[in-house]
Amino acid sequence: MFRMALTGKKKIRKMPDERRREITEAAARLISERGFNGISLKDVADEVGMSQPGLLHYIGNKDGLLSLLITDIYDTSGTPDDFLRSGLPGSDPEAPLFPAYLRFLVRHNAQRRQMVQLYMVLEAEAFNPEHPLNEYFLNRPMEVWLHYSKYPWKLPPGVEWDVHMQAIVRMVIEAMDGIQLRWLRQPPIDYYDEWLAFERVLFPSPVWDGYR
């Protein structure tokens, strides 16, 4: 007679940052495919192999999931501060070039297609006044303007930030949203090349020569 050794899998406890990354990746994938209203917290929990109570520990509630995805992740990368730290042409912290920053942002977004798709899906859904991000998207143009206004952009002679640039920043947002929608569709386009075509319109020669 012999005793059979019983072996079981040891549960691996993951670090909070790793768990949070898994949650955001799963949620971004599911929402970009089905929309925010088309998923449940159980869907996200099942995707990452967690219980719902375990998931709630990280996000609080379903609206907290959106906050984690948009305000804590999407909005905190590809920022002007990231550009100023990049050492790229035009990133002089004392006199950065605004069009150069926008090219940096386009390249950054081109590397996170799923997050961009998530963002565009949520923006469309948020037309509904009951959507948790309705106010966020309503306020977005002004919030972007105020944020960009904190930086000492180097502008062409005769172009003043507070006087001339608010309409341009608004059109930048509109152009980027439109390009991103087209980029996500078929047949594919080159996101960066398409932006360069818009850049020539928004920041035309000869006024912006040397300031792009």
Describe this structure in a few short sentences:
This protein has 10 helices and no strands. By secondary structure, the chain is an all-alpha fold. The chain folds into 2 domains: 55 residues, Arc Repressor Mutant, subunit A; 126 residues, no CATH class.
Keyword list:
2 domains, HTH-type_TetR-like_transc_reg, Arc Repressor Mutant, subunit A, disordered N terminus, DNA-binding, 212 residues, elongated, 10 helices, 59% helix, DNA-binding transcription factor activity, mainly alpha, transcription cis-regulatory region binding
How many structural domains are formed by the residues?
A: 2
Low-confidence stretches: 1-11
Give me the strand/helix succession.
HHHHHHHHHH
- Report the β-strand fraction as a percent range: under 5%
Q: Count of helices? A: 10
The number of E-state strands comes to 0
The whole-angstrom Rg is: 22 Å
Main beta-sheet annotation: none
Cα end-to-end separation: 83 Å
Give the averaged pLDDT, no decimals: 89
Question: Structural class per helix/strand content?
Answer: mainly alpha
Keywords: DNA-binding
Protein name: AcrR family transcriptional regulator
Domain HTH tetR-type: 17-77
DNA-binding region: 40-59
